[in-house]
Amino acid sequence: MQTLSGLSPNRIAISEVQYGWILSIAGSKKPSVLCNSTSSIYRWSPSKKQFEVLRSLKTEGAVDVTFLTVEDLSRNGKNLSFIAFAQQISGSEAGGEVHIYSYSSDFRNYELFQILRFQWSVSAVESTCIMEECYILVVVPQEGVHFFKYQYVEVNEQVPPTALFSTHVSIVKLYYFQNFYCLKFLGV
Q1: In CATH, what number is assigned to the domain containing residue 155?
Q2: 72-84 pLDDT per residue, tens
Q3: In what order do the strands lie in the sheet with 20-27?
Q4: Contact 129/147 with Cβ under 8 angstroms?
Q5: Is the pTM higher than 0.85?
Q6: What is d(CA 120, CA 71) in angstroms, rounded to the nearest whole number?
Q7: Residue 3: inside a domain, yes or no?
Q8: Model confidence over 51-61: pLDDT tens digits?
Q9: Do residues 114 and 100 make contact, with C-beta atoms less than 8 angstroms apart?
Q10: Is residue 106 assigned to a domain?
Q11: Is 103 within a domain?
C-alpha cells in the first residue's frame, strides 16, 4: 500500500507505456488558489513495488490530465508517449492552457513538447485513437470541444520529418513545427 502525500489532486491518470507504468497527478494546493500548484509524474518501481517521482511540474491550477500513445513513423514504428495537463491561468492573462509533455528516451523523462493556449478556462482534457488516428480533446466550456489530431509529415530530404499537434496551422507551417494540428471544433 502506498500513499502519495503533499498533493491536492484534482485528477489522476495511469497508463502502461513502453517502458513501464506511469501515474500522473494534476494537482493544486487549494481549489481556490490557482497559482503555485504542483502536478507530478510518477514511474512504477517493480523492485520497490511503489511509484517513485519521475518529475514534478509547476502548474497553475491543473484541473485534468490524460495520456496519449501514438505510433511515430519517424522512429520506425516505435510508440511515442504524451501526457497532457489542462490548467487554468489566473491574473491579467486569464484563460486556459494544455501543457503537452513527450517522453524522451535520451533523458528517460518527460519534456515539454507544446503548450496549447485558449482565451477561456479549460475544464477537461482527454485523448483517444480512432481507426489509427490519435487525438487530444480539450473542453473549453464557453467554446465547446476542440479536437487536436496527431500527424506525421515527411516533406523531402532537406526538411526533417515532423510530428504535429497544432491549432490553425497552414500547410506551409506544418513543415516547420512539431505540434498538434487542430482538426475540427464542436460548438456548444
Answers
A1: 2.130.10.130
A2: 655 566 788 899 9
A3: 9-17, 20-27, 37-45, 50-59
A4: no
A5: no
A6: 32
A7: no
A8: 999 998 887 77
A9: yes
A10: yes
A11: yes
